[in-house]
Amino acid sequence: MKTNIMKIAIAGVLAMGLVSCDEFLNRPAEDNYNVDNFYQNDAQCIQGVNYLYNSPWFDFQRAFLWVGEIMSGNLYIGESKYLDFSVNGTDEDLKNMSYSLWAVNGHANTVIKNILGSEGPSQAVKEQCIGEALTWKAFAYFYMVRIFGEVPIIHDNNELLTSGQYNNVYKATRENVYEYIIMTLEKAMTLLPKMGAKAGGRIDYYSAEGLLAKVYLTKAGLSGSLNADDLAKAAEYAGDVIDNSGRDLLPEYSDVFRLQNNRNQECLISWLWEAGRDPWTQQNAMQPDLAMTGFSDFEDNCWGGWRGISVSLQDAFGVSAIDNPEDRAGEKDKRRKATMMMAGDKYDYFWTDKGGFDYLRFIYDADDYGKGGPSGSMQSGTGANVVKHLTGRNADHIKGVGYGALNMASALSTHILRLSDVLLIYAEAKMGTAGTTTDASALEAFNRVRRRAGVEEAEGTLTWEQVWKERRLELALEGDRWYDYVRLSYYDMNKAIGDLKSQRRDVWYGLDALYKPYYESGYKNWTITEDVRYNDAAPVPNVTKESFTLPFPTEDLVFNPHLAEPAVEVDVRASYSYNF
Predict the structure, then answer these.
(1) How far is residue 275's CA from residue 397's CA, in Å, rounded to a whole number?
(2) pLDDT tens, 118-166?
(3) In the chain, where are the structural domains located?
């Protein structure tokens, strides 16, 4: 897909050609919409911003996981250029990611311009919708600065097109981009209502504030050492969300990722998908990329069984693919099973029309229960498969949202900022530059996350290392972990590189010889032979300081050579403004 900034600018102008049919995401039909006859009332104004919750983000779905999880060592895909840090500017998923993020910015800019030019909607609704668009714009830039580093600031697509300078834009420094993100979120917060737990999936004041806390935590190390003022601001904003938003964690961790909880109060910002394919951008298409062959009852719908949960992430959870499942019978951390499926695991929320999902039965009982599935062979070389982002069979989708899925299209929301993230941001930020804290509120924020997970709470002193690990366990497979490494690299490059190089990022040999007899013996015969071993000969990942910035798509560099030149310093507050 073409990604150059000219096409992105045009895409923003044409944004409203996208369609959806969900009640929450109702939008005008393409054949009866134009700017002059729309935005005539509050309902139309809200419809005009709804598609920003899904369609422009569609082409980011793969790289969301490839960058966030493969590069960070949470997800294994053999031969992946993201696994060995060799991605270049011709990579198709990289190009689609770039297109998607620039599209979000272009669409948000156009929606804002259209709303500002409308006269029918009430001022309160216009402000709410503009605030939502600004938050999405800020989030797109937050991804871009952490992925590409220095990027251009496209404040107004229409102005850029009118000037004819669309192939003459320069990169801004990372510091400038962070300042632009902060300015954008600050403006959004002046416009958004404080709906809190009643937001019902919509972005509100606390959504933008939680994101701003995360931006400040990330920006804090940008100068090469941690900035105490940035950390204090991160703690202040996160603390306000915690204390005043009225939001709370769902009692059961796995429930956060179920269809029936698509718009739960824990999730501050989510992509809200529709199980439709008209247009081909409104749906969640992650299950096919992550699930084992035959996991869905749509023909040829899943091909991700060989994309396994990394051995490194299993190590972090304190489990192993070669440990007897009976030894996990009393495991405390509920997040492990909600994140990865392993030998012996069963799920009552998948395959509800078949009495639940049994992992090994699915793999090895190919003529009965698992017909059409892996056909008697373990697909994942790591001994674990993905759970998050899966919906299961069509019956599960109907049970979750009241209607069926389509091939490569589900309605499962993708949560990209949760309250648990904000709690951990607060706990880390309260440490300041010390790396430890005895602050009671920081301990309580940290322990709220641990308590829900079912594991022991921290007492006395909380360390940076504890929060670092907790973020990995709590947010695993949610497209976030790599960006923790990026922010760490800002102020401690050696630690970031060393941590990544120390991970076990390869596969086990001989798992079928271990698992199949175990299943066929009625889950009794667990015998490890010399054939069952980890690939200790796997090369150490070639991660360097350059690995923490991905390249621009090659075609963008051809279209605009300035992207290969040094960034230009910009006075953000003087050069750009939101005067509305």
Answers:
(1) 9
(2) 999 999 999 999 999 999 999 999 999 999 999 999 999 888 877 777 7
(3) 5-192+550-575, 199-276+415-479, 286-410
Listed in sequence order, the DSSP H helices in 246-358 are 286-290, 311-317, 334-339
pLDDT digits (tens, 9 = 90+) for 282-327: 999 999 999 999 999 987 789 999 999 999 999 999 999 999 999 9
* Phi, psi (rounded to 5 degrees) for 414: -110, 115
Residue 291 CB contacts under 8 Å (≥ 6 apart), including other chains:
301, 302, 304, 305, 385, 386, 390
Give the separation between CA 458 and CA 451, rounded to whole angstroms: 10
Residues near 446 by Cβ (< 8 Å), separated by ≥ 6?
Answer: 423, 424, 427, 458, 462, 466, 467, 470
Fold adopted by 199-276+415-479: 1.25.40
Rounded CA-CA distance 222/425 in Å is 17
5-192+550-575 and 199-276+415-479 in the same fold: yes
* Model confidence band, residue 35 (pLDDT cutoffs 50, 70, 90): low
CA-to-CA distance for 19 and 469, rounded, in angstroms?
Answer: 41
Q: How far is CA 17 from CA 13, 28, 281, in A?
A: 10, 8, 12
Q: Does 279 sit behind a cis peptide bond, omega within 30 degrees of 0 on the bond before it?
A: yes
* 3-state SS record for 350-364: CCHHHCCEEHHHHHH
Choose the CATH number for 5-192+550-575 among 3.30.420.100, 1.25.40.390, 3.40.50.720, 2.60.40.10: 1.25.40.390
Residues with Cβ within 8 Å of 551's Cβ and at least 6 positions away in sequence, in order, are: 87, 88, 89, 94, 148
Helix (H, G, I), strand (E, B) or coil at 233: helix
How far from 511 is each of 139, 384, 392, CA to CA, in Å?
A: 41, 11, 24
Query: What are the pLDDT digits (tens) for 444-503?
Result: 999 999 999 999 999 999 999 999 999 999 999 999 999 999 999 999 999 999 999 999
